[in-house]
Write a structure and sequence with these properties.
The structure is a single chain. The protein has helices at residues 3-37, 97-102, and strands at 41-54, 57-62, 70-75, 78-84, 90-95, 108-116, 121-126. The protein is an alpha+beta fold. The protein folds into two domains: 1-38; 42-126, OB fold (Dihydrolipoamide Acetyltransferase, E2P). It has a five-stranded antiparallel beta sheet with strand order 5-4-1-6-7. Strand 2 (57-62) and strand 3 (70-75) form a beta hairpin. The chain contains two helices and seven strands, in the order H-E-E-E-E-E-H-E-E.
Length: 127
């Protein structure tokens, strides 16, 4: 066996492992999506604990590859409220600008709660 044959076998093995990883990731993602779609959800009244506003901004950092390049990222503004459920758990919810300015700390808002039991995941969103 020559070194070219070993290199070719190594490349085929790495490509095979990457392909298997991608397939497994897609299957897990698909199962999660199906479970999320058919999970029971309910509405509950939650208390606004805090409000956070993050203005839009740009950031500069090193580009991937380490060749001295610079990557510029842009993040749009975010309007987030922290809410406490009846259970005592606290979650952060993103709102649009109008709804963000309508609520204050201590206000009660309706939230939609969905529980994906298979993955032990809870999603909370404004109702």
């Amino acid at each position: 066996m020559t070194s070219g044959d070993l290199f070719g076998a190594l490349i085929v093995g790495v490509i095979g492992l990457v392909a298997i990883g991608l397939v497994i990731g897609m299957v897990v993602g698909f199962v999660y999506f199906i479970c999320w779609c058919f999970s029971p959800s309910h509405e509950e009244t939650a208390t606004v604990v805090d409000k956070y506003y993050m203005p839009s901004h740009t950031g500069i950092g090193p580009a991937l590859g380490g060749n001295g390049g610079v990557a510029v990222t842009f993040t749009s503004e975010e309007y987030t409220v922290s809410v406490k459920l009846k259970s005592g758990d606290t979650y952060e919810i993103e709102l649009d600008e109008d709804d963000f300015h309508k609520v204050n700390r201590g206000d009660k808002i309706k939230v939609s709660i969905c529980c994906v039991k298979m993955f032990n995941d809870i999603c909370v969103s404004a109702a």
